[in-house]
Amino acid sequence: MGIINVTPDSFSDGGYYFSTQQAIAHAKNLIEEGADILDIGGESTRPGSQQVSADEELKRVIPILEALADTQIPLSIDTSKPIVMKHAIAAGAFMINDVNALCSPGALQAVAQSSHVQVCLMHMQGTPQTMQANPQYYDIVHEVKDFLQQRIQAATAVGIAKDRLVIDPGFGFGKTLQHNFTLLNRLDQLLDLGAPLLAGLSRKSMLGAITGNSVDHRIHESTAAALLAVVKGAKIVRVHDVKASKDALAVYHAMRNCAAQEINLSTSNRD
Question: What topology is assigned to 2-242 in CATH?
Fold first, then answer.
């Protein structure tokens, strides 16, 4: 999943692709690098960010959705506003990526009205304005898992089929450095929720805290984190640096395929 932030204030690339033309050009670059999904966001959710109006968010994202409709690449809209969800679905969005897990009034219904759109339910403690003030958990993995289970139940209760759901533990959203790495280490414990896992670790401060690299120089640690998330069971990785991630995952999958072939050959020889 390649990231397109149509914002002036996102933590990594805010302002880089703020115009429609810049965002479309960036989208085409991500497609060339091998993106399978494009995630378009018109409102920053970095720590301390401020909300924008629905009208402003629509002004930022709908022209890009419409311009990319003929690319045949599934388009995701990163939003928590029901009205933006509705317009994005009408404009051809394949997925709603909601950091608020459809908790906003009317969000469940906005998605339920569509019979096909996918939705990613993410865990966040607090709001983007408050989430990093003092996040605390008794058991981070247990609490994230419980929340996601509750949101899966809420979605299916209004008629959203479970096979349309994706879950995201929300790295960096109301979590300390220790919380984030505990979640990554135990990510596979979320698999029994029965929904595909999305992991968004790209360029995040948890990685900079380990390497000391600034946000624009975290390609190596971001690629490593994406690979580790896939090893732990993630089916989708949300990244800024698509080619680096694709290349690393190609090596990993080649190794896995070779191991599977060896097992099959061994079984065939025994037979």
Answer: TIM Barrel (3.20.20)
Annotated catalytic residues are 204, 238
In angstroms, the Cα distances linking 107 to 81, 88, 156, 169, 175 are 7, 13, 13, 19, 24
- What is the pTM assigned to this prediction? 0.90
- The pLDDT profile of the chain, 271 residues, written as one tens digit per residue, is 999 988 765 544 444 555 788 889 999 999 999 999 999 999 888 777 678 899 999 999 999 999 998 888 999 999 999 999 999 999 999 999 999 999 999 999 999 999 899 999 999 987 777 778 788 899 999 999 999 999 999 999 999 999 999 999 999 999 999 999 999 999 999 999 999 999 999 999 999 999 999 999 999 999 999 999 999 999 999 999 999 999 999 999 999 888 777 766 655 555 5
Enumerate residues 6+ apart whose C-beta is below 8 A from 29: none
| Domain ranges for the chain | 2-242
